[in-house]
């Protein structure tokens, strides 16, 4: 009985790997790819994804395409694994992570060579995700962050925020998001006791710590990214914002799935109201202002006030003459 259960689980993992390798499936589509008749539950699929990551398979969630995939140059298409062979690979990855130190690198090198043979290409030396361009220093940082995420080990690094302030961070890495041409680490900031996103190209001096951790079973990387338009803006608790769109843009607004959770109500005359559930109200306010006078924030009052404040500031700016550019000496 245990053997049959183990076999069926490995079949599910093989199908999951194949679906990730296709690079076009979101979370629900991955469930169907594992089994159309009896798809795994949400918690089960999250556990499967964690097990693959722990075994050294570097999947990540790409925000723009809303799908799970492997980095470019990493393929499994021609790597025909029997169930026991896949189980062995996953066990090897977990053993390497448990041993730590130099063993981690040796096991990862072996897994890279094995997977690199899958499409008869040389193993990837650098990781290239989507259309992201990283400098040499950022690529080295990314490799360290990925190692920490795969091995479930804490990381420490120096981080420069968007204001240029530099701070030391100790985090537990949960995964990666690619958004608007940049790679972001999603991790629990141990000092702030909250999940944060860190732009990889703003990270320096990344290093592994000996401490290991267990990622919460209920953490959903896709849901986390899906509550923000860019995938990386999070202010804390989720909030609902209601926006009314004029008839001339209502259809386009209804089709713009900028966040995962929303409710669309069609009104008389062709207008519509959409309730967005978002992680950053300010991010949504700025996006709504991009629709000009064709969109209006209805609720909550704080979001209306924020939109009004930005609009008044813009009105003052545009009543003035544009600044005169001084000629270069």
Describe the structure.
With 329 residues, the protein is an alpha+beta fold. The chain folds into 3 domains: 2-119; 136-216, Roll (SH3 type barrels), CATH 2.30.30; 239-319, Alpha-Beta Plaits (2-Layer Sandwich), CATH 3.30.70. 40% of the residues lie in helices and 23% in strands. The protein has helices spanning 2-22, 27-34, 42-54, 83-99, 102-116, 136-151, 221-226, 247-255, 281-289, 301-319, and strands at 60-62, 67-69, 153-160, 166-179, 182-189, 194-199, 203-212, 239-245, 262-266, 272-278, 295-299. Strands 1, 2, 3, 4, 5, 6 and 7 form a 7-stranded mixed β-sheet that branches. It has a 4-stranded antiparallel β-sheet with strand order 9-10-8-11. A hairpin with a 4-residue loop joins strand 5 and strand 6. The longest helix has 21 residues, at 2-22. The termini are far apart.
Return the structural class: alpha+beta
Question: Helix count, per DSSP?
Answer: 10
Question: What is the total domain count?
Answer: 3
Largest sheet: 7 strands, mixed
Which stretches are poorly predicted, pLDDT < 50 over at least 5 residues?
Answer: 1-7, 92-107, 113-131
Beta-strand portion reads 15-25%
Helix content: 40-55%
In N-to-C order, the SSE pattern is HHHEEHHHEEEEEHEHEEHEH
**β-strand number:** 11
Q: How does the overall form come out from the CA principal axes?
A: globular
Q: Report how far apart the termini are.
A: 83 Å
What's the rounded overall pLDDT mean? 78
Rounded to an integer, what's the Rg over CA atoms?
23 Å
């Amino acid at each position: 009985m245990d053997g049959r259960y183990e076999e069926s689980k490995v079949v599910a993992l093989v199908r999951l790997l194949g679906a990730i390798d296709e690079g076009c499936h979101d979370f629900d589509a991955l469930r169907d790819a594992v089994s159309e008749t009896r798809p795994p539950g949400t918690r089960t699929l999250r556990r499967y994804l964690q097990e693959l990551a722990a075994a050294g398979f570097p999947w990540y969630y790409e925000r723009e395409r809303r799908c799970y995939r492997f980095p470019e140059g990493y393929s499994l298409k021609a790597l025909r694994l029997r169930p026991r062979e896949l189980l062995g690979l996953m066990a090897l990855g977990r053993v390497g992570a448990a041993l730590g130190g130099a063993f981690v690198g040796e096991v990862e090198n072996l897994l890279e060579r094995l997977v690199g043979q899958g499409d008869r290409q040389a193993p990837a030396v650098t990781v290239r995700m989507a259309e992201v361009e990283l400098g040499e220093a950022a690529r080295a940082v990314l490799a360290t962050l990925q190692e920490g995420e795969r091995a479930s080990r804490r990381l420490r690094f120096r981080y420069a925020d968007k204001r240029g302030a530099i701070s030391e961070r100790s985090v537990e890495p949960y995964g990666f998001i690619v958004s608007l041409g940049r790679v972001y680490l999603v991790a629990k900031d141990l000092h702030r006791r909250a999940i944060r996103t860190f732009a990889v190209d703003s990270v320096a001096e990344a290093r592994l710590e000996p401490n290991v951790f267990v990622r919460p079973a209920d953490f959903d990387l896709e849901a986390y990214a899906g509550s923000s338009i860019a995938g990386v803006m999070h202010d804390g608790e989720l909030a609902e914002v209601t926006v009314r769109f004029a008839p001339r843009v209502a259809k386009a607004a209804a089709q713009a799935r900028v966040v995962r959770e929303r409710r669309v109500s069609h009104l008389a005359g062709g207008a519509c109201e959409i309730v967005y559930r978002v992680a950053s109200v300010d991010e949504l306010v700025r996006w709504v202002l991009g629709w000009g006078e064709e969109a209006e924030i209805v609720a909550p009052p704080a979001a209306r006030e924020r939109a009004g404040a930005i609009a008044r500031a813009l009105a003052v700016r545009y009543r003035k003459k544009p600044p005169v550019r001084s000629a270069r000496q």
